[in-house]
Each structure stands twice: as C-alpha cells, then as structure tokens.
Amino acid sequence: MTTHPEKILTTQEVAARFHELAQQEKWFEIQHEFFAENVRSIDPPNSPYMGYAEGKANVRKKGEDFVKQITAVHRAYTTVPLVTGNHFAVGREMDITVQPHGRIQFNEIMLYEVKDGKIVSEQFFY
Q: Is 106 inside any structural domain?
C-alpha cells in the first residue's frame, strides 16, 4: 500500500481557506487547522488588550482570554487577504464591547507568515 504525504498548501491556498473561515468568524478553527506548534502571536508593545504568546496552546489561550472579555459584538469585518511570498495580510475592523475597556472601535492589520503550509506567526498592528 502506497501512502501519499499530506499535500503542503501554498501561502495562497492557506490565505484562501483562512478567508473562508474568517468570513464565518471561525478563528479557533483557523488556529486548529493552520497554526504550527511553534506559532508566535505578537501584539504591539504596551497594548492594553493583549501581548505576546508562543506555542499553539498558549496562542489559543491568548485568544480564548480575549474572547472571554467581549460582552457584545456590534460589527466585525475582515478584508480579503493580500498575499505576497510567504506572507499574507488582512484588515480587520471590529466594533466591540470589551471588559474592562467598554465599547471600542478596533481597526488593525493582521500579518501572517506561512512556512510549509502552516502559519508560524501572526502579528497585529493597531
């Protein structure tokens, strides 16, 4: 019996599937499907919302901790990915109510690096 190695997705293919899931607000499914075990998640220095996390489990916990603070989503939108080389970026706009910050307008660029079909880093600019 011949086994075929799992096909490694291109950055374009990862970005396309990312976009499909992001439009459904399925962020943890994106993490499960695409994040490498050694993924890094980087927020701006001195961010009042989130910080740095490394490793798939720690990055998931970072996301879960943020989601727990959201008390209302008034609007959320993610742009189509812009892909170049082994990176892709999306724009993300959110109008959310977050404890303890209250209602905030969140506009950011999210930059992802892909290696061997997996996301190895996500960096947020806001």
A: yes
Question: In this structure, what token pair is assigned to residue 42?
Answer: 């980087």
Range(s) of the domain holding residue 40: 11-125
Whether this prediction's pTM lies above 0.85 is answered by yes
pLDDT tens profile 15-33: 999 999 999 999 999 999 9
Cβ neighbourhood burial of 122 (10 Å; 0-12, 13-18, 19+): buried
List the structure tokens of 75.
Answer: 């609007």
Please answer whether residues 35 and 59 qualify as being in contact, where contact means their C-beta atoms are separated by less than 8 angstroms. Answer: yes
Domain count along the chain: 1
In a domain, 57, yes or no: yes
Residue 19 lies in a domain: yes
The CATH number for 44's domain is 3.10.450.50
Mean pLDDT by 10 residues, the chain (126 residues): 76 98 97 98 89 96 93 97 98 95 94 98 96
> Where are the extended beta strands (E) located within 1-126?
35-42, 53-54, 70-78, 82-84, 87-98, 102-115, 118-125
